[in-house]
Write a structure and sequence with these properties.
Blueprint (H helix, E strand, L loop, with lengths): L28 H12 L2 H6 L2 H16 L4 E5 L1 H18 L6 E5 L17 H10 L7 E6 L5 H12 L3 E6 L5 H5 L2 E4 L14 H20 L16 H15 L3 H10 L4 H10 L3 H10 L4 H10 L14 E2 L4 E4 L2 E4 L1 E5 L2 E7 L6 E4 L1 E6 L1 E2 L2 E2 L5 H13 L2 E9 L3 H14 L7 E2 L2 E4 L21 H8 L4 E6 L6 H8 L4 E4 L6 H10 L3 E2 L15 H8 L4 E5 L7 H10 L4 E4 L11 E5 L2 E6 L2 E4 L11 H11 L3 H7 L2 H6 L16 E4 L5 E6 L2 E2 L6
Parallel strand pairs: 1-2, 1-3, 3-4, 4-5, 7-11, 12-15, 15-16, 15-17, 17-18, 18-19, 19-20, 20-21, 21-22
Antiparallel strand pairs: 6-9, 7-8, 9-10, 11-26, 13-14, 23-24, 24-25, 26-27, 27-28
Length: 686
């Protein structure tokens, strides 16, 4: 198809013959395909250069469609077919009303399949097509022509202009006739085609891209998406219904079964279903709210959550508080928009508004030996409760009390105390007890008293597990009998490997036996080397393994932190390995029977051995930001990943209906404020 009229062929860039393609018919298949693919690669940059003119057209289209007008594409041949294709696809994708976006093709609809080549030359037919479509001043007619001078398109634009319609021209040459006719013009010169004059190639690619951008951007601005989710699709077949279920579950933060049930009840209207779930209203109320805000789901959520009129949802009758954040971490994923809470619950996420900071679930620490002057091996019930309050004041809502190697009776006494303290509703929640020992390697004992280390002993372990409450056991897998222990307890608690001189093979066998985590990666284990990756190397590369790492800037070098987060993506939790000295000034403290000296915030045993941590988990989070760890990965490492590993994903959910226990962090991931069940909780000032 050629649409050159008026100007000489030599004056149209798309008609020129390229000197580098004159031997096109003699190229090998590989060279021919390579030439054509390379040629297409330059098209996106040409489109990008037209962003200002495309943006103006999108604004015009959005305004006219929002006011009830129509968008009509007009073209001949390839250009017209591309207009018909884009118009046809907007219906199922965005549930546009019939006729809101349509196309007029030279030669009629049948020319889509059977070309009518001379139809493009009929200027009067273009005008007649516009008259037949009953174009009015509310509409937009967008003419598409590679050359910019197709008579059918020229006639259509002239008639549209006469009828008061807005007109837009899309051409692939400079200073075109239709560009001068249109109220707005998008002219993207693509240059000579690989096959001279075959404007179904690069010119067609440009036209397809631009039409996609115009229709899609306009639909987004009209509220046809929620974020980048097709929340207004028309679920007319099984594939689209499945997509609708996934989209509703994603946006409403609910299970797919609930999404499907709600969609079925409202006639498969995704936006209505989302509003029903998130605002707890029926379909009639949801539909009415959407109509009030011209179908914008985000605006409807704002309205329905904050309204207090009769007939509103249960949530709306409470006192609703907007947190004023820019995003929220929901089930480990960042959702842009504000968060609303009421009656101690999350009532909405993803609300409109330009807030600051990110709302996240409270922090979870899987390794705490002591805190704020309390050592867990020597604590009373009141001490443990007090320690839980101190942790909560630093943003930690759940933790694993950790007991290092000691005498059996001392460990059992501490287990009993912690189990009693666990009944208290105050402070940070106790997830379970972490037994870090006594089945550890004497070659990597760290701060653990070597004389009290034990070889794997199932009877001893059973006695330690008998009181209940133990959620994690750390052991060295290379010790004789360790694999039997792992197999015996893997279904009752998390088995973590640590304080170990294991080879990579010994580590791999232990993970195969059911070990699921590694305790303070890189610390108290053999270093990695080119031929001996050891426990650390296996843990980083085995996708089954949860990786715990101390991120205080002292125990692990920043480069190793970066290595862990890039290699074990989605599996890293940061822990404090906190001592009684955590949060306190320098001095002398106890870790069980071990005396620890803290100087400059660094805890060491008398012989200089580095002991546990002294910095709160909130400081570890902000350290990740300084190191350059991706924001989402850093936030997941103190919430979603540890909570999921311990079997408590509800701790890391900010779904509507979840308890409104929320930490708010600023752009540097420093903890700014904390809500516990919807109420402000005073943080320790640091």
């Amino acid at each position: 198809m050629s649409d050159d009229r008026g100007l000489s062929l030599g004056e149209l860039e798309t008609e020129q013959v390229r000197s580098n393609a004159v031997d096109l018919d003699m190229l090998s298949t590989v060279d021919l395909v390579d030439l054509m693919c390379s040629d297409v690669a330059r098209i996106p940059d040409k489109v990008r250069a037209a962003v200002p003119s495309i943006s103006r057209v999108v604004e015009l289209v959005t305004a006219r469609l929002s006011q009830g007008g129509r968008l009509l594409y007009v073209g001949a041949g390839t250009a017209g077919r591309l207009g018909m294709l884009d118009a046809a696809e907007t219906g199922p994708t965005f549930s546009t009303p019939p006729g809101q976006i349509s196309a007029l093709l030279a030669g009629g609809d049948s020319a889509f399949v059977t070309p009518v080549e001379n139809a493009e030359d009929d200027r009067e037919a273009g005008g007649e097509a516009v008259r037949g479509a009953r174009v009015t001043s509310s509409d937009i007619v967008l003419g598409i022509s590679a050359s910019g001078r197709t008579p059918f398109v020229v006639g259509a634009l002239n008639e549209a202009h006469r009828r008061g319609s807005a007109t837009v021209a899309l051409a692939c040459n400079r200073d075109t006739e239709i560009g001068r006719l249109g109220d707005m013009a998008i002219e993207i010169p693509v240059g000579p085609e690989v096959i001279a004059g075959s404007t179904r190639l690069n010119a067609g690619t440009v036209q397809k891209i631009v039409l996609n951008v115009i229709s899609t951007a306009a639909m987004v601005q009209m509220g046809k998406t929620f974020g980048n989710v097709m929340i207004d699709l028309r679920a007319t077949n099984e594939k689209l219904r499945e997509r609708a279920v996934r989209m509703v579950a994603l946006v409403a933060h609910c299970e797919t079964d609930r999404a499907r049930e709600t969609l079925t009840s409202c006639g498969w209207q995704p936006k209505v279903a989302v509003l029903m779930i998130m605002a707890r209203v029926d379909a009639v109320h949801a539909q009415r709210e959407l109509e009030r805000v011209n179908g914008h789901l985000r605006a409807a959520l704002d309205e329905i959550v904050l309204t207090s009129s009769p007939g509103s949802s249960r949530v709306a009758r409470g006192v609703v508080r907007r947190l004023g954040v820019a995003a929220a971490l929901v089930d480990g994923e960042l959702v842009r928009g504000d968060v609303a809470v009421a009656d101690g619950e999350i009532v909405a996420v993803g609300l409109s508004g330009r807030g600051r900071g990110t709302a996240v679930p409270g922090l979870v620490d899987l390794q705490v030996n002591g805190y704020d002057g309390v050592d867990l091996l020597d604590a009373s019930v009141d001490d443990v409760v007090t320690m839980g309050r101190s942790l909560l004041r630093d943003g930690v809502v759940a933790y694993q009390p950790t007991l290092i190697t000691s005498d059996e009776d001392e460990i059992l006494r501490a287990i009993g105390v912690i189990n009693q303290a666990r009944q208290s509703a105050e402070g940070a929640r106790i997830l379970g007890i972490h037994l870090e020992g006594p089945f550890l390697s004497p070659h990597q004992s760290g701060t653990h008293p070597e004389l009290k280390l034990r070889m794997p002993d199932l009877d001893l372990l059973e006695r330690l597990l008998a009181p209940g409450g133990v959620s994690t056991v750390t052991l060295a897998p290379e010790l004789p009998g360790a694999r039997a222990l792992i197999r015996a307890i893997r279904d009752r608690c998390v088995v973590s490997l640590g304080h170990s001189a294991a080879t990579s093979l010994e580590a791999q066998l232990a993970f195969d036996d059911g070990a699921r985590a590694v305790t303070h990666l890189f610390n108290a284990m053999e270093p990695m080397s080119a031929r001996q990756p050891g426990l650390a190397g296996v843990a980083l590369t085995d996708p089954r393994v949860g990786v715990h790492v101390i991120a205080d800037g002292l125990h692990v070098a920043d480069e190793m932190l970066q290595l862990a987060f890039s290699t074990a993506k989605g599996r890293c939790s940061i822990v404090t390995d906190a001592l009684a000295a955590a949060g306190l000034a320098d001095g002398t403290y106890s870790l069980g029977e071990v005396v620890v000296h803290v100087q400059g915030g660094v805890a060491r045993r008398g012989d200089g051995t580095l002991a546990g941590g002294t910095t709160p988990l909130r400081d570890g989070l902000s350290h990740l930001s300084r190191v350059g760890i991706d924001q989402r990965d850093a936030l997941r490492a103190v919430t979603w990943v540890p909570a999921r590993e311990m079997g408590h994903p509800e701790l890391a959910s900010l779904r509507p209906g979840s308890p409104a226990t929320v930490a708010i962090v600023d752009e540097s991931l420093s903890l700014a404020s904390l809500l516990v069940k919807g109420r402000d909780y005073e943080l320790v000032s640091r």
